[in-house]
């Protein structure tokens, strides 16, 4: 691991510690656009503090409205960049299973690929 | 992807339609005959995967030429598909162990009976454009058509109907391969490495079980044959055809697409839903509905309502048959290998009507698998349009004789899974069978879920209304907390 990354990780760990002590009822998550994704817009802010009981399905709805996407348009959330998650799973459940060592839960969003 | 047919060699069946279609605009003159030559030189099935043979310059040239054709036209020029004789091949929920002629014959009939829809050219101009072909852009629509055709076959034709006109299999080889998966038992005695059948051995099944049931009444056969022809004609490339490319492009316009655009598996699922909805008024298809899952969730209440509500119009059976389409994304940048087991499980189910997806940018219709490879029908083959309004139009170009496979790791993560349930009882058993197939491991979430009740019960309003925390209304608080929360958005 690069020294830079280690420092970044340490910084993020500190950040998580601070924010969790301030808001113990919220979970820190980072939501980024999938690298290959071109059709969906970028989020202006990628760090979220979410309540434990919020479900993935509800979060997806919020995300949909945030990037102004209609309900029938494809939008997928992937945990740690590759794992599918049930819509009924709660953030608390997903966080406890999939959080990164730095304390954040990482999620990526993507639509579907097009084919010719 | 300008996929024009590289040569008639791939699917030559002697039909007039298959003789050297050369798209003058795109295909350079020398390539077509060259491909056939290349195939002659590399007929041992190792062309695509094996390392190059440096002994002959000519061989290398031809190999490069065929590779070039492969790249340019999307259509794989690989010579033969190799099938393992020792592990089962799954096709549309049926298993085939290709170690005897009977089994290969059973597979040939099953594979050749699938409806194969490909790029076509010289069809009536698409409305709102000057296009008379879908070569190079319509492959996802074609894959969607094939999925729908499979659903309609289950809906309309006898369950194990086989087309008597099935072509002989081409470009296939059968070999005894060591299974790649270490978990598979390797203890089976290997009879021979030749490509001839081993007709002895413990795996041989009684021939009565492997034979396709023959129908005694010729009149019923003729009737089924008429249905088959009628079904294929629904996918004809004329504006009036209910599931033809003209109709699908038209219905895609509402979803922001136009002729010449590339389509995605989720979008095509919605187009198919609308096409079937629309065909209910026109054809004898008023007893079929399509349900498209939203956010990887099938709401059983919604399916029930769709099947019951719409059947009250016709007032007949009380329950409509349903095609359930589930658009999914099985990974981020590439397919997450943890989901291949699940895909295999789904393709093994009787109620599964295939998967529309593909390799990146290259749509394929997945119909089965063997070991670590998916079996598919490829729409990237440009054929001349067939006039389906003629009562006796030729059916040959709507069926494929060359089964192909590709490794799971090349599968694009975006796809739409298809299922069919004829009756209410079928739907219930579908739910439990599919749920079972989806729950491969306890640590992972299933790739999609069935939920009792209606989608609206789970919407965001329910969350906001039930919550006592006023900050649940995320969007306004977003700006409020901007300064106080160190760059975090509060939910």
Automatic annotation (TrEMBL), chain A:
The keyword Lipoprotein applies. Keywords: Autophagy, Cytoplasm, Cytoplasmic vesicle, Lipoprotein, Membrane. InterPro entries: Atg8-like, Ubiquitin-like_domsf. SUPFAM superfamilies: Ubiquitin-like (SSF54236). One of its GO terms (biological process) is macroautophagy. A lipid is attached at residue 116 (Phosphatidylserine amidated glycine). GO terms for cellular component: autophagosome; cytoplasmic vesicle; endomembrane system. It comes from the Eukaryota. It is found in: Cytoplasmic vesicle, Autophagosome; Endomembrane system. The keyword Hydrolase does not apply. It holds the Pfam family ATG8. It is a lipid-anchor. PANTHER family: MICROTUBULE-ASSOCIATED PROTEINS 1A/1B LIGHT CHAIN 3-RELATED. Belongs to the ATG8 family. This is Microtubule-associated proteins 1A/1B light chain 3C isoform X2. It comes from Ictalurus punctatus (Channel catfish). The gene is map1lc3cl.
UniProtKB/TrEMBL annotation, chain B:
Its EC number is 3.4.22.-. It comes from Ictalurus punctatus (Channel catfish). Residues 1-10 have a biased composition (Polar residues). Residues 1-54, 194-223 are annotated as: Disordered. The keyword Cytoplasm applies. This is Cysteine protease. One of its GO terms (biological process) is autophagosome assembly. Pfam families: Peptidase_C54 (PF03416). It is an enzyme of class 3 (hydrolase). Residues 202-223 have a biased composition (Basic and acidic residues). InterPro entries: Papain-like_cys_pep_sf, Peptidase_C54, Peptidase_C54_cat. GO terms for cellular component: cytoplasm. It is found in: Cytoplasm. Keywords: Autophagy, Cytoplasm, Hydrolase, Protease, Protein transport, Thiol protease, Transport. Residues 105-432 form the Peptidase C54 catalytic domain. GO terms for molecular function: cysteine-type endopeptidase activity; protein-phosphatidylethanolamide deconjugating activity.
């Amino acid at each position: 691991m690069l020294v830079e990354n280690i420092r970044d990780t340490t910084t993020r760990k500190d950040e998580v510690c601070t924010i969790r002590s301030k808001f113990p009822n919220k979970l820190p998550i980072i939501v980024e656009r999938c690298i290959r994704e071109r059709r969906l817009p970028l989020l202006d802010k990628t760090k979220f503090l979410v309540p434990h009981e919020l479900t993935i399905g509800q979060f997806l709805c919020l995300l949909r409205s945030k990037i102004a996407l209609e309900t029938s348009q494809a939008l997928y959330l992937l945990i740690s960049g590759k794992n599918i998650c049930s819509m009924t799973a709660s953030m608390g459940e997903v966080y406890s299973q999939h959080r990164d060592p730095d304390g954040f839960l990482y999620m990526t969003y993507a639509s579907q690929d097009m084919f010719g | 992807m300008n996929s024009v047919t590289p040569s008639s060699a791939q699917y030559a069946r002697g039909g007039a339609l298959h003789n050297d279609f050369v798209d003058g605009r795109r295909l350079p003159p020398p390539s077509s005959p060259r491909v056939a030559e290349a195939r002659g030189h590399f007929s041992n099935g190792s062309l695509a995967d094996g390392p190059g043979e440096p002994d002959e310059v000519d061989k290398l040239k031809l190999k490069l030429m065929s590779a070039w054709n492969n790249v340019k036209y999307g259509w794989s020029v690989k010579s033969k598909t190799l099938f393992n004789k020792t592990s089962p091949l799954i096709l549309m929920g049926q298993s085939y162990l290709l170690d005897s002629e009977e089994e290969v014959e059973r597979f040939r009939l099953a594979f050749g009976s699938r409806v194969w829809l490909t790029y076509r050219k010289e069809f009536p101009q698409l409305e709102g454009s000057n296009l008379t072909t879908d070569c190079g852009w319509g492959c996802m629509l074609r894959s969607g058509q094939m999925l729908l055709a499979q659903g309609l076959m289950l809906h309309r034709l006898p369950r194990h109907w086989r087309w008597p006109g099935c072509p002989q299999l081409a470009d296939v080889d059968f070999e005894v391969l060591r299974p790649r998966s270490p978990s598979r038992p390797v203890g089976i005695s290997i009879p021979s490495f030749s490509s001839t059948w081993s007709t002895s051995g413990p795996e041989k099944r009684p021939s009565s079980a492997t034979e396709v049931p023959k129908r005694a009444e010729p009149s019923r056969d003729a009737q089924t044959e008429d249905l088959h022809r009628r079904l294929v004609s629904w996918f004809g490339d004329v504006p009036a055809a209910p599931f033809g490319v003209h109709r699908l492009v038209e219905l895609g316009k509402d979803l922001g697409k136009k002729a010449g655009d590339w389509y995605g598996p989720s979008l095509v699922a919605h187009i198919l839903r609308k096409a079937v909805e629309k065909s209910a008024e026109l054809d004898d298809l008023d007893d079929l509905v399509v349900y498209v899952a939203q956010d990887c969730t099938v709401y059983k209440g919604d399916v029930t309502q769709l099947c019951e509500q719409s059947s009250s119009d016709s007032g007949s059976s009380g329950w409509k048959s349903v095609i359930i389409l589930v658009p999914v994304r099985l990974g981020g940048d590439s397919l997450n290998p943890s989901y291949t087991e699940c895909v295999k499980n789904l393709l093994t189910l009787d109620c599964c009507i295939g998967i529309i997806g593909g390799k990146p940018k290259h749509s394929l219709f997945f119909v089965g698998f063997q070991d670590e490879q998916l079996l598919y029908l490829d729409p990237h083959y440009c054929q001349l349009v067939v006039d389906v309004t003629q009562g006796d139009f030729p059916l040959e170009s709507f069926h494929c004789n060359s089964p192909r496979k590709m490794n799971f790791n090349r599968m694009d993560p975006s796809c739409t899974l298809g299922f069919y349930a004829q009756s209410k009882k079928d739907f219930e058993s579908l739910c439990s069978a599919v749920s079972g197939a989806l729950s491969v491991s306890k640590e992972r979430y299933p790739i999609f879920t069935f939920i009792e009740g209606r989608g609206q019960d789970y919407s965001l309003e329910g969350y906001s209304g039930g919550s006592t925390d006023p900050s649940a209304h995320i969007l306004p608080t977003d700006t409020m907390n901007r300064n106080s929360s160190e760059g975090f958005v509060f939910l």
